[in-house]
Amino acid sequence: MNNKKLSFNLFDIINYTIISLFGFLVFYPFYNTFVISIASEFEYAKAPFMIFPKHPDFISYNVLFSSAYVWRSFAVTVFVVLTATFYQLYLTTTMAYCLNKNYPGLKIINLFVIFTMYFGGGLVPFYLLINKLNLVNSLWSLILPTGVGVGYMIIMKDYFSKIPVELEESARLEGANDIVIFFRIHMPLSIPLLVTIALYYGVERWNDAYLGMLFIKDAWKRPLQLLLMDILTDYQRAATYLPGSVQNKLYSEGMKTATIIFAAVPI
């Protein structure tokens, strides 16, 4: 008995040690990014991997929070995330509900849907389509092209197929149509999955800079991740978004890491 207890405790120690090391490896880059964002240029040059700066300086955050461009980008991203998540979730659930029914040609439609997971129309036709719809330089170009995540739709379709058919049949006997059945039966029973898929959609839209890079021309309509990409890749040009009175007082690494923290913490 004592030997079993000793071996179990030894396993716990090894297990917690491995998990703690893995947690440290995941956490430290974020912590180091924050430390750099509040360190002075002299301290950072002296010790890039410091534990904590001796004289913390929050000027990068002060400048970041005082920039109208940054808050505008933040507002654009929040709008896109909320609107696109609802839009994608609605399309995903309704499509999953329809493809869960039995009607002629269903297998062919399913084949066409799955085909889009592996093959796309290409960048040039995609841009020409958005341009033809007059969505270039519009916030809707960050929302409408997102559409249905086929992988999530297949998961939702499989979930709907496991809902007892008797519930739907009894509802139809009471005179309910497909719209009522969808919103009164399938949606309430799918809340855990809906929340999970909504979370994935929201994170994808928050981190997306690709659509903004393709279609957004106006600086005031740029999403936060696109502003972050500008600061990381071309700080001198991106510095024009910051208040002019302090541009020469900042060092690039401090602003870059402060922007990373600002873009990562909300999500």
What characteristic shape results from the CA principal axes? globular
Order of helices and strands: HHHHHHHHHHHHHH
Q: Helix share of residues? A: over 70%
Helix tally equals 14
Which structural category do the helix and sheet elements fall into?
A: mainly alpha
Distance between termini?
48 Å
Task: Give the overall average pLDDT.
Answer: 85
Radius of gyration computed on alpha carbons: 25 Å
Number of strands: 0
Biggest sheet features: none
Strand content: under 5%
Low-confidence stretches: none
Characteristics of this structure?
267 residues, mainly alpha
Commentary on this structure:
The protein has 267 residues and is mostly helical. The protein is 70% helix and 0% strand. It contains 14 helices and no strands. Helix 12 (224-233) packs antiparallel against helix 14 (252-264). The longest helix has 37 residues, at 2-38. It starts with a helix and ends with a helix.
Task: Summarize it.
By secondary structure, this protein is an all-alpha fold. The chain is built from 14 helices and no strands.
Task: Tell me the layout of helices and strands.
Blueprint: H1 2-38, H2 41-46, H3 59-65, H4 68-99, H5 106-118, H6 123-132, H7 150-161, H8 165-173, H9 178-189, H10 191-207, H11 210-215, H12 224-233, H13 235-238, H14 252-264
Helix pairs in contact: 1-14, 4-7, 4-10, 12-14
